[in-house]
């Protein structure tokens, strides 16, 4: 089944890209005050309408994608007013595939029968653009019921997220293309397009409201990201035969810049050790390389540690500390590739 998801997912991605690039979209609704625009187009291949919703999300793009994938998607029934039940039936992380079952709320217009869809979601990452295409499928145990009308999610539906070029670290542009045949009798599909357009707007408003609460939780967790560390240094030459240690640090995040500030905590040293004075102002700053946003990080490391080395002027020790800084970076570079291989996931395989 995962092979089917991967194979059909590639075809669905082609159709989604075609829909993104087509120029025959017709404006349905525009809500400038909400930064939401909804367009429609009749598709000859599917003999149905696609709706294209463009909206902004005032959240960092990478966080938004991860939160949607890891939490918000599973909680759809909690925040979407159109969704009665949502379940992730199966995940295949190696193939970037998810199988989902969604049951919709009953609506007006005489639509008194419950409707559901069973569909695959296939993820794709290209640079800072994250795409998830959707298309209907069948699954044992989720066969159509006589009490529930089974809808169809047409190939070409999907979601694209990428940073706003003008506010890369604080705003995401969302492109959502949807086409679901809900098997509603007696009503021409063209008449239903405005109704679906209103549903698209409500979906975005519901999603924003829920994500705002999630984002506040995220910021609160980042604000409390404090670490107390104790480091013991190796003995070195120059007659430095006493073990030295330091107790330090506090970290926080600002936008796409990750900062760790080093400072001495009020902890006494062991009698056999020499307590290092780690001067206030020492810090480590990490941020994406503007030329290679998703594959390279720039590191700025400011260090000033009084190692309490007697009989030697601090200026004499600077070249020695400089060599130590170089060795620290080389050691770190040797260790991190192994960590990257361990923590790497197929959802970001295309980075």
Question: Overview of this structure, please?
Answer:
- With 351 residues, the chain is of the alpha+beta class.
- It has helices at residues 2-21, 61-72, 76-79, 189-223, 314-343; strands at residues 26-31, 36-43, 48-57, 83-92, 97-104, 114-126, 129-136, 148-150, 152-153, 157-164, 167-178, 180-181, 229-233, 244-254, 257-264, 274-275, 277-278, 282-289, 292-302, 305-306.
- The chain folds into 2 domains: 2-222, Alpha-D-Glucose-1,6-Bisphosphate, Chain A, domain 4; 229-348, START domain (Alpha-D-Glucose-1,6-Bisphosphate, Chain A, domain 4), CATH 3.30.530.20.
- It is built from 5 helices and 20 strands.
- Strands 1, 2, 3, 4, 5, 6, 7, 8, 10 and 11 form a 10-stranded mixed β-sheet that branches. Strands 13, 14, 15, 16, 18 and 19 form a 6-stranded mixed β-sheet that branches. A two-stranded antiparallel ribbon has the order 9-12.
Give a short overview:
The protein is an alpha+beta fold and 351 residues long.
**CATH level 1 name of the largest domain:** Alpha Beta
Tell the overall outline: elongated
Average pLDDT value?
Answer: 81
Secondary structure category: alpha+beta
Q: Tell me the major beta sheet.
A: 10 strands, mixed
User: DSSP strand (E) fraction?
Assistant: 35-45%
Number of domains: 2
CATH architecture of the largest domain: 2-Layer Sandwich
Order of helices and strands: HEEEHHEEEEEEEEEHEEEEEEEEH
E-strand count:
20
CATH topology of the largest domain: Alpha-D-Glucose-1,6-Bisphosphate, Chain A, domain 4
The residue fraction in helices comes out at 25-40%
